[in-house]
TrEMBL record:
Name of the featured protein: S-adenosyl-L-methionine-dependent methyltransferase
Record key words, sorted: Methyltransferase, Transferase
Chain segments carrying region Disordered: 317-342
Pfam families xref list: Methyltransf_25
Family stated for the protein in its record: Belongs to the methyltransferase superfamily. LaeA methyltransferase family.
Feature: compositional bias, Basic residues: 318-342
Ranges that cross the membrane: none
GO BP, sorted A to Z: methylation
Amino acid sequence: MAEWDEEEESTLPVLPEEHFVRVVYNGREYHQLSLSSNAYLAPIDEVEVERLQMTHDMFSLVFDDRLIFPEITPLRRVLDCGTGTANWAVEVARREPQSQVYGVDVSTEMMPMYGYYPVNLHLEQADLNEGLAYHDNTFDLVHSRLVAGGIDAEKWPEYIRDLHRVLVPGGWVQMVEIYFNAQSDGGHLSDNHALSHWSRHYLSAMESAGKDPRAGLKLDHWMREAGFTRMEMREITLPMCGWSHNERDFGIGVANQENVSRLLSSLALYPCTAIQDMTIEEFHLLVGQARQEAAALGLKPYFKAYVVVGMKRAGAVSHRHSSSKSSSSRHRKGRNGKRVPR
Ligand SMILES: C[S@@+](CC[C@H](N)C(=O)[O-])C[C@H]1O[C@@H](n2cnc3c(N)ncnc32)[C@H](O)[C@@H]1O
């Protein structure tokens, strides 16, 4: 088990200026380093911060306000990978004040300002594609939600092995990914619908960018390969609007509608027009039509989400393999200036 002093102030330098540089592309603000390193291709502006709150609220309905699915006691240390606005991590830190929660993201730009989140939350910068720099056998829970837009396709097995490595024996991983392939209840959506065109363009643009937009469907396979046990997977329908006669799903659809309307543009803008060759006019036209269809009750449109949990075997103590960088060379200063357990 790693040891560190949670109150210790880091003596490491603050992040270099380049981590705070934004670039405007077709009216949206992006994190320049994330674009230049091909780590993440969605905006990081206020509109996106709002949208991620909508996503989080929608998931709160889907999961009946449960943040953590397995029973974990004691919950001492939690890691949230690709924490973004830290919506999930902030709530866990509030509800579990005895635990230390760590949120890591390639960009600190959407994170809340220091002083505006619980003191048991520690936010820091790192690229998940470079491997986790935390000590082996450290966390009771690792959470990873909606990072498929950022993990390099070929890095997924290694990423999940790394999640396994940093868990304490008996610790849990909890992963959630959406498959952005529009479908419809009753098969109302044809290949010619704009939502279907949008899906094909988005999925193929993400593949061109070296990502795996179908990662959600493979999580359980990669987790099994990494050695997880007691795995449970759920495939969940996320209605794009309030088309369901089921009261609960109707509520989820209503909560999801604005989120979907915004993500059709925000997730696909850069991949479709900068990586692939769609013109901005073609893009706006497609998104406008796809938005109408996403809100059309008769079409009954939805995306699927994949939720998987798994446990690291109680006897499985990890040892960092020799090819990983040493922990000392990978210390980085967190957003709040606290040293993190690496
Ligand atoms: C769609 S947001 C989801 C945020 C959060 N997990 C949630 O569910 O609200 C994806 C986040 O993952 C981060 N991300 C994507 N790829 C990453 C990478 N390679 N390393 C670190 N963070 C990454 C992005 O910067 C972004 O903040």
